[in-house]
Sequence to fold (279 residues):
Amino acid sequence: MPPAPVPTDLPADRADAGIALPPLDALVDLARRAGEAIMALYGPGVERWTKADESPVTAADLAAHEVLTRGLAVLTPDLPVISEEAVTEAELAAGAPAAAFWLVDPLDGTREFLSRNGEFTVNAALVVDGRPVAGVVGVPATGRIYAGCPDGAVVVEADGSRRPIRVRPVPADGPVALISRSHLDPRTRDWLAAHEVERSRQAGSSLKLCLIAEGEADLYPRLGRTMEWDIAAGHAVLLAAGGHVDTLAGPPLTYGKPGLDNPHFLARGPWTTGEAADA
Fold:
């Protein structure tokens, strides 16, 4: 039987750990508006800079940051927001600013944005007690938006139509792994070989977690450095679709850690390594 339809709004009194969640439609609309701000600057002439860590940032990153942070301040005025484009060294060192807070990556995949391959995303996740309980991931180049909450996960198309999504059973001919278009390294290749994963597909940004949630792939091992805002929204969508994001040591990935960086992790549907190990 097909999965039951997923509610598209959460009642105002619906709460997780005592936190009232905003309507899912409001988060979808916010991601859409941030995506429109990005696409207004999508082209070879966009203003760009280089951060201290040598990563690029553009005027589109900053435009989406403004849309998201202003919108979240209206939806949840009492909750702090940590955005990649405004985080301070003190905030990084402190980790979680409260039991509940937003993690925002206004434009994940800036390199993909600059190369104009379409695989960049808008991300906002509500974290409660270290767990991403609601999130949206927008794909501005296609107008598609993924959203997840305690009631389930949906994908919203550019025309406004929507459908529930769910992770798939592992295919009979073996799982499909998603690998980074910009950050693939020998450790990831070795990990896939060690776990006899023979099929792979490249994808950019947090879109990889959403593709697993949608049943288009089965796993995504990440053995390089990522920040919490890079994956929190995709993690929320994947959890809502029945998936998992675990550290390679085994326990589920959590958020609000001092430094706000992630250990190596494995995002997945039902596929499992049996006894996970850091290859």
User: Anything to note?
Assistant: The CA atoms of residues 249 and 277 lie 6 Å apart. Helices lie at 24-39, 59-75, 89-94, 110-115, 186-194, 207-213, 228-240. The longest strand covers residues 100-108. Confidence is low (pLDDT under 50) at residues 1-17, 275-279.
